[in-house]
Structure formats: structure tokens, C-alpha cells
Amino acid sequence: MLLCGCLSAQWLETTIALPDTSMPGAMLCNPAAGKLYVANTTSAHGTVDVVDAAANVFVKAIPCGVNPASLCFNSANNKLYAAAAYGTAVTIIDADADTVIKHLAIGTWPGPLVYHAPSNRIYCGSGGDRTIAVIDGAGDSVIHRIAVAHMPDYVCLNPGMNKLYVSIHSQSRVEVIDCAADTICARLTVGETPGMMCYNPMQNRVYVALDVGNDVAVIDCSADTVMRPIPVGVWPTYVCYSPGVNKVFAATTGNNNVGIIDCQTDSVRSYVTIPGTPGAIDVDTIHNRVYCTDRDGGKVVVIDGASDSAIATVTVGAKPDHLYWSAQRQRMYVANSWDQTISVLRDSAAAVAEQRSTPDASRITPGASIVRGVLYLLPSPFPLPLGEGQEVREWNLLDISGRSVMPLESGANDVSRLAPGLYFARLAVGTRRSTTTKVVVTR
After folding, report:
1. CB 3: neighbour CB atoms within 10 A?
2. Do 17 and 101 belong to one domain?
3. I need a surface site. Which of 29, 114, 188, 412 has the fewest CB within 10 A?
């Protein structure tokens, strides 16, 4: 712990002050414009606060609905969507001018949002009418409503198989949506009180926190079957996947730990103790660090994903409830909900990396292809034995959330516009087999 205290100043780069009326929550970046958007979750002053991410200063507040609890970004049309959790609409914002385009009626208690890039659609949970609303990203209208069993709590996209997984907390199930037809294709009983989920593109699995139990449920996405649960500790509330080390990190609020799951064996490798109540958890995909907030103590614990050990404890602000990792800026943003601030954390290794003309080989995951600017795809760059009659489907490049960022073709593929970090080149074979290879994009 003495080492962690000494490192605190090295990790905290700056603190961004927001208006006194703000209670910062969910965050996301517009990487092209260098802006950070922050949901102000106060019921009386529902706004999306805009921050200049280069200067680390507040710019303006955009009015939206009551208690905006979820955000997503439409990269095709450069628009931001904010769901008003205690209202009835999703506010759609022009991310060039940072002005409101419209308030789109969804239904009571709009909830989780996710952007589906292949179809340019946004999926939004509506708790009041127990549906998933499908929004056309070009026309900003609701084109479908998909009925689910009860109030949708979290959503998780599997872009490789074009499916959306929806956790239904009150029904002990996860429902699977076929995004091509926008219909339910599977209903899975996973265990009591399923909540937050994360997707592992390496094994093509979804990990589900059973947040009033002791387990993380595992879904095999190829067959949409539930595998054996993984005991991780009391009340696993938050989960995230770290692609660089192929592990899932589960924050357990009942016994103040982070359980670390090896995704090769789906077993717990070790635990890291959080000083107080663990809250939000997120991963730095470049340096293989995992950040977990201590909500009661106003701190963030930094875990080294390779060694499964805490390497720093950083003092931030009051009630750090949300985290957001920006690979473009190589910063972790911490929303301190009780003191109207955003803490900006930076791995000390990032400063060293910026001074190098070549990647730091000690931080590159073994077996990954390292590219700068152009990714060359040869006819068989990643060997895969094919059976007779198997259909080879196109290669895609996925980000760490499993979202397709671009199709890949034979020859040179320009990846210079992508944020530095870890990606996955994935090839599907037939309907149920696939291979995935790590690709590190550097500057």
C-alpha cells in the first residue's frame, strides 16, 4: 500500500471542474473532435456536459431529459444519443454543433443504449413498456419495437454474430436478439438477477454478472447455451473484459474484491482487494491495466492485468461512480458524482511510449500482429484448417468491445485513422466456427 500511495500523483494528471449543478455519470468521447461528453444525472438539471478533452476544460451544457443515465455515439452520422432514465425520450445531439436535433419519444424509463454500426441503428431499452426500441440512425425514428420478458437492464452486442444480448434482472434470464431480423432468437435462463455483461471475442462468449448472487454466468454465443457458472465472490455487480490478457474482471460489492477470471479455463485465477466498496470497472486496452473505483473512499485502484496485482491506489473525488477509457487520448476518465468533477488518470508508461518511435515490445501481447498505418492481409495470414465444403466468410476488424470497426480485404488496409490500441482480426468459417487474431495498431 505504501507503493500505491507514492504512485498516486503520477497517475492523476488533472481534475476537470464541472458546473455546480452537475452530478457526472456516464461518459464517452467523440475521438474525431477531441470532446468528452458527460451525462449530468441530476433530475432538476438534466444535461449533457461537453468537455474539451485536449484543454481539460468544461465548454457547455446541452439540455436533455430527466436523469440522462446512458449515452451512445453514432459514428456514421456524428450524433450523440442520451437516454433520460426517468423520462420518456432519447435526446439526439448534433456532435458537430453540440446542439439538440430532437427529443425522440421512446416510452417510460428509457434505459441502456448501444450503437449497431453495420445497420446504423441504435438499440434502446424501454423499461415502462418492456421493449427494445430500434432507432434508425439516419432518420432518427423508431422503426421497430422488440418485446422482451420484463424491464431490460443491460445490453451487450456481439457484432461478429450480429446479436444483441439483453439481461432481464427480474426474470433471471438473458434474451438474445437477432439484429438482422430484429426478433428474439433465444431466451436463456442464466441464474438469479443477471445484470452487467461483457463480450469476449476471443472465445465468442458473453459473461454475465449475477449481482445478488456469487457467480458470473457464461454464455456460449455460437450455440446460445449457458455454460457452468463461475463462483467469483459475493454480489458480482460490475464486469469488464481485458483483451490483452484474455481475462474478465468482476468487482464483487459484497466482499470488496475484484475476481479475475482466466477466459481460457473459465476459472478464477486470483483476487485483488478493494479498500472500500468496489464500483465501476474499466480496462486500459493499451497498457493492460484495469481500473476499479472505491466508491466510499474516493479512490481508484489500478490493477496490472498481466500480474493480477494492484499497482496503484489513486485519490480522486467524492463518490467515483463511472469510468471511461479513451484509447485515442490514452486516458481514463473518472466521474466523481458528489463533487462535480472529472478526474483524468494517465498511466505513467504512456508518457514514455509517446517519446518512442517504435512500440514498447514489453507491453505488446505475445502473438499479436503489430501494425502502423497499414494492415496487410495476405490470402492466408492467419492459418486455419478448413474442412471440405466450409464457406469462408469475410474478415472483419473488431475493437475490444467486439464492435466491427472495418471490413478487411486482401492486400493493404488503411488503419491510420483508428485509435491506437488492441483490435481483433476475425474470420468466420461456416456458421459456427471462427478464428481471431490480435492486432496492435500503433502510431
Report:
1. 10
2. yes
3. 412
Ranges of residues in the chain with a pLDDT under 50 are 1-6, 352-353, 355-367, 379-392, 431-433
Strand pairing class (433-441; 369-371): parallel
Rounded to an integer, what distance in angstroms lies between the CA atom of residue 160 and that of residue 157? 9
Q: Do residues 294 and 279 lie in contact, with contact meaning Cβ atoms separated by under 8 Å?
A: yes
Question: Which residue has cell 426474470?
Answer: 171
Domain check: are 153 and 79 in the same one?
yes
Q: If we measure between CA atoms, which residue out of 76, 75, 106, 109 comes closest to residue 91? A: 106
Name residues whose C-beta falls within 8 Å of residue 24's C-beta, 6 or more positions apart in sequence: 18, 38, 39, 40, 41, 49, 322, 335, 336, 337, 340, 341, 342
pTM exceeding 0.90: no
**In this structure, are residues 126 and 107 in contact, taking their beta carbons and an 8 Å threshold?**
yes
Span between the terminal Cα atoms of the chain, in Å: 35
Parent domain of 436: 356-441
